[in-house]
């Protein structure tokens, strides 16, 4: 798998016409984009110039961030592009790394060489901060525990929890930070709700012991922020936690003051600054407990901002599935946290493995995708099942038509009747997932196919942009409207005969004049990346060709685990094998930093020539 682009001529915006030498060659060959070159040459100029090998490493570090890594591992560059060696060939990796470490770019602070990786300074600092904040949180005095109250609370609210879930609840009381991991349906939300009840009980017991609680009077309530990277995930978390809390005794519920919001809103987004927030180290969040769901989607930058904003003595609960695709932005924080604490007796990580929701056959397939070989995945796909279907075909349209059209018609019917909630519910009946946006296996083409089928079924031309029943997907965060990337909705006919765009997000269902939403797409089909954090009753996964650069085990796993009752995989055996055999690896150093910190060393990366 390479990650090259194919220039479509000199006018391609990814080509830097003024570039010369090795950078120009690698640009024309599709390894580096014009933006990588521009940033690299500008940074090098600011640092007073540098030699070619260091400049090349700098451009590759810029490129790496664009591809989701936080740094570049020079040892992997030759295998990434074996045919593209510049001039005398790729430099020998160790010598190259040592040369970068000695270069003026490192001396001037533009680059850092740490943990065997070459970082742009900003990303090394972010990673260092995340590690330092986590380590500081874990090294401070542990929270006080009222053991008798804990045992009583666990007996009262923990009855239903399995052993792992109970351990998570107990650890969350004893530690400031807990990382709760597990696939869909493993009871993460159930456990979060009960953790909150136990924490509230602890706070009440301690208040009472300190004389703060008046017997018989309601005491201080534990303030809890439930958050997630997307509004939809935050709303879902709140809904699920509310439902779970409703099953608990009133005394446990009443001790909690819970609010839910996106991570950006929690941190206080600023119109004047996209990477800084109102809450930071000097203006911490006031909450006693901060819960972040879907934390596999949180990129390094946002995690750094979160960690500096949470009070040292507030509980932090990071929840997510580290096997899923990582964040769109650079980093793989959740999986690094899990790996970085492997074998650590004081680990904050608790993994839930019992899946209570999916059907048996979907579980078997998901498990094969987590740990199995390609043969095992194919066996799981080919075992006759009511829940898992595998279709190898050259003609996906014939397979996809029935479900996608039925789903589009259901949304349309509800939308025509002005039933926004019904239209949004119908969206979750069936979802078509594609790896790509473009190309024959991409979302754009399949959106068009379904619109054509829908038009034929209705005997209408659906050419107008805001047709009734158009399923919608929000593609960027609009903090002013509180509409967030990944949220879904539909165009619905109002009683006045005008259409409105209804979006289901952090504040429930909201309607907008269509023109106010400028970043929405049609969602008869959806990319697997965008599907993270959502589920549908039935899911069809359309795999691309085996040569697709996006195919990976994580992508396939994420797609399959979106299905609650039925999953159909459409694609060739070669595509299945290519997916299972490819790991979506990112170059990051957080795991090593956490391990080094645990071993008592510094996390500044002295192992391979430090730039700090
Ligand atoms: N220990 C348990 N015993 C029986 N059922 C459980 C247990 N834990 C959770 N469940 C049930 O399993 C289902 C899934 O739980 P939950 O929604 O908490 O999982 P989740 O990990 O948050 O899933 P997702 O990430 O998909 O939202 C729910 O119906 C829940 O009531």
Automatic annotation (TrEMBL):
The EC code for this enzyme is 5.6.2.3
Q: Which reaction does it catalyse?
A: ATP + H2O = ADP + phosphate + H(+)
According to its UniProt record, this protein's enzyme class is isomerase
Q: Name one Pfam family in it.
A: AAA_19
Keywords associated with the record? ATP-binding, DNA damage, DNA repair, DNA-binding, Exonuclease, Helicase, Hydrolase, Isomerase, Nuclease, Nucleotide-binding
InterPro entries tied to this protein? Coronavir_polyprotein_1ab, P-loop_NTPase, RecD, RecD_N, RecD_N_sf, UvrD-like_helicase_C
Q: Identify the residues that the record assigns to the RecBCD enzyme subunit RecD N-terminal domain, covering every copy.
A: 29-110
Output one GO MF annotation. exodeoxyribonuclease V activity
Q: Does the keyword Cytoplasm apply?
A: no
Misc note: In the RecBCD complex, RecB has a slow 3'-5' helicase, an exonuclease activity and loads RecA onto ssDNA, RecD has a fast 5'-3' helicase activity, while RecC stimulates the ATPase and processivity of the RecB helicase and contributes to recognition of the Chi site.
Function text: A helicase/nuclease that prepares dsDNA breaks (DSB) for recombinational DNA repair. Binds to DSBs and unwinds DNA via a highly rapid and processive ATP-dependent bidirectional helicase activity. Unwinds dsDNA until it encounters a Chi (crossover hotspot instigator) sequence from the 3' direction. Cuts ssDNA a few nucleotides 3' to the Chi site. The properties and activities of the enzyme are changed at Chi. The Chi-altered holoenzyme produces a long 3'-ssDNA overhang and facilitates RecA-binding to the ssDNA for homologous DNA recombination and repair.
Assembly, in brief, is:
Heterotrimer of RecB, RecC and RecD. All subunits contribute to DNA-binding.
Q: Which family does it belong to?
A: Belongs to the RecD family.
Entry protein name: RecBCD enzyme subunit RecD
- This protein's encoding gene: recD
